[in-house]
Amino acid sequence: MTKITPQTINPDRRAFVCGAAVIAATVLTGAAQAESGAAGRKTTSQAPEIFGPIRQIDAGVLNIGYVEMGPEAGTPILLFHGWPYDIHAFAEVAPLLAKKGYRVIVPHLRGHGTTLFRLDATPRNAQQAALAADGIALMDALGIKKAIVAGFDWGARTADIMAVLWPERCAALVSVSGYLIGSQALRDDERASPIYGVELPEGYRDWKLISVAQENGRNNDIRAILGNDVAVRAFREGKRPFPDGAVIVRLAWRYESSARNDKVFPAPQSFTAGTPTNVQVSVKDPKRYAATGGWGYGQFEGGRPNPDRALVQSCFACHRKLETLDAGTDFVFTGYSR
Question: Which of the four pLDDT bands, split at 50, 70 and 90, describes residue 330?
Fold first, then answer.
């Protein structure tokens, strides 16, 4: 049997990450210059045998293990490691930043070290957006409103996504040897859902609220249902069937407990919207969608239509069951919440 031994961390890579982080932090605070030779220095020093202590905190769906160094009142810096690395990639850079007065936080990403899911029933997900949401959840749990975010490899993309989706939470970004992220504009033929050709309506996030909902079980999400003016008027007047031009949008997020909010209350009781899952759009056009009760459907993730034809086709099957059980709903599950 072949014996596999752990690989020694490349000191050149550690020096590169160390130098980049120190220089970025020094520039951001307006210092005259970085430590002499920090960026180009090759280090032969070894990481401390003990990097810690490891602390634990409930943050979103995780119980996150992390190391914290530096003054609590210092400017926060979150350092995200890559794969297959762990927090020890920052065993040398973290003390340097702490020495400069920063509050340095180095978390084990989900799937690493002592970071664990809080509930067995939580779906396991390693999407980069989920790791970025973990970073925001950690900031919330630690009471940090804004921080410098930095990382390499997978950690670089985690930091990138945090800066893109939550720019108000990121004071600055240091991204080293990671993967690029982009915002490529969709072509016209990429905007519409299969079968029905439904698109995300422009400005739908500013539409009026019709109702809210919460799904347990496999979905485990919290939902907001919005409508354009035609749909809202029909809901308020109790008009069925819905008139031509009505558009209903259902947004969904993971239903997650809030460790931060629960610290305020006498018992765990606060649940909030977590990572977004998908957006479903229903468009009323009796002529175009005569075969499906006058409704066309689309599901979108990250602003893009889900291309799964079977998934989109199943939308009408569910709504048809509702109309069979309760005639007069015009295939719409939602009622208007007054």
Answer: very high
Which fold would CATH assign to domain 188-325?
Chalcone isomerase (3.50.70)
Residue intervals in the chain for CATH 3.50.70.20: 188-325
CA dihedral 200, 205, 209, 210 (to 10 degrees): 10
Q: Where residue 35 falls among pLDDT bands split at 50, 70, 90?
A: very low
Per-residue pLDDT of 94-152, as tens digits, reads 999 999 999 999 999 999 999 999 999 888 988 888 999 999 999 999 999 999 999 99
Domain with CATH 3.40.50.1820 in the chain: 11-176
pLDDT digits (tens, 9 = 90+) for 173-222: 999 876 666 655 556 668 899 999 999 999 999 999 999 999 988 889 99
Peptide bond before residue 53 is cis, with ω within 30 degrees of 0? yes
Q: What is the DSSP string of 147-212?
A: EEEEEETHHHHHHHHHHHH-GGGEEEEEEES------PPPPGGGSSPTTT---PPTTGGGSEEEEE
- Classified as helix, coil or strand, 87 is helix
SS3 helix, strand, coil % of the chain, rounded to 5? 30, 25, 45
User: How many angstroms separate the CA atoms of 303 and 157, rounded?
Assistant: 19
List Cβ neighbours of 24 (8 Å cut-off, separation of 6 or more). Answer: 148, 150, 172, 174
Spelled out in words, what is the top-level CATH class assigned to the domain 11-176? alpha beta
Q: Among all chains, which residue has been given the structure tokens 């049997």?
A: 1
Instruction: Say whether 285 sits in a helix, a strand or coil.
Output: coil
Residues 11/22, Cβ–Cβ less than 8 Å: no
Q: Is 321 exposed, middle or buried (0-12, 13-18, 19+ CB in 10 A)?
A: exposed
Q: How many CA atoms lie within 13 A of 291 on its CB side?
A: 4
Tell the burial category of 164 from Cβ atoms under 10 Å away from its Cβ (0-12, 13-18, 19+).
middle
Please state whether beta strands 170-176 and 147-152 pair in parallel, antiparallel, or not at all (unpaired).
Answer: parallel
For the whole model, what pTM was predicted? Answer: 0.49
List pLDDT tens digits, range 231-240. Answer: 999 999 999 9
* Distance from C-alpha of 114 to C-alpha of 171, rounded to nearest angstrom: 27
